[in-house]
Amino acid sequence: MICSIAFSKASAFNTLSDCLIANDIGIYSFDTESANMGKGSGVVGLAGHFNRDHEDTVCTGEYSNITEIQGLPIEEARQKIIGIDVQVTQHSGSDSDRWLLHEVERDFRNYYGLPDDSFVARQINGNTIIGLSVAGWTYRWVSGNKVIQIQYHDSQMTKPEPLEVVRAYLAKHPSTLTAMTSADLRTEENKTKWIKDEMERRLWLCDRWFYQLQLKKVELRKTLREAVDHMKVFLDYREKYYGISAKSEKQVLWKYMIENNGTAIKNKLKEYKEWWSLNKGKAINL
Fold this sequence. Notes:
Elements: H1 16-19, E1 29-30, E2 36-39, E3 57-64, H2 66-69, H3 74-80, E4 83-90, H4 100-106, E5 119-124, E6 127-132, E7 136-143, E8 146-153, H5 163-172, H6 188-214, H7 220-242, H8 247-258, H9 262-279
Antiparallel strand pairs: 1-3, 2-3, 3-4, 4-8, 5-6, 6-7, 7-8
């Protein structure tokens, strides 16, 4: 099964209450002073989410069970304290949002796109979410053009999960992920689709950077650096899954970048896109 999302027209956040639950949730107290709303791509920013042609809005908030543990001996309080970080990002509905789900999963997969052993899909109150259970839990889901992340730290994995907070945010921002299981994430079909989507996305990102250069909204050196970085990932994937050596190609790209040779790099991108068009439908070696 391939996971998918349904997009609706983005509606901008105007106040913190549009994105966050600005009050206590059960035993978890809301930290009013830590709440913030600003511009940014949120958790998908590290995955290379392209935001040069639009603005996204990100809200952050914190909760804890500080009231519940007040009065306990210090050591016991340390063992029972739970701090929860929430991030809700409203994406603008731009062309970049076609990759939202893909980018939401990026942190839960290794460099070559294979799912981490701790990467799971879960059903909560009829909603599908994805998560990673490493030294605590990171819960994520997509709600239309919004990305929600709830995270807490627990190095010993002995503290109760703050599912009350997750349920509350699912009620406010229902998941639009299609139903799936952890086993679905590990099928050959799912792995193949994610890997090929990543290769396509990297070439798409190169096009977006060169288009911004054409519009004179970014500098040449910045564009070439970004494009070469994305092409290197494409080449690494091509080497691993199609058996074509990447070393000499990456050396050539590095040389062109040092020379500030935008024409040569664009020609290489055209070459890779033509190769991809001919080969993306072929089977890969997992």
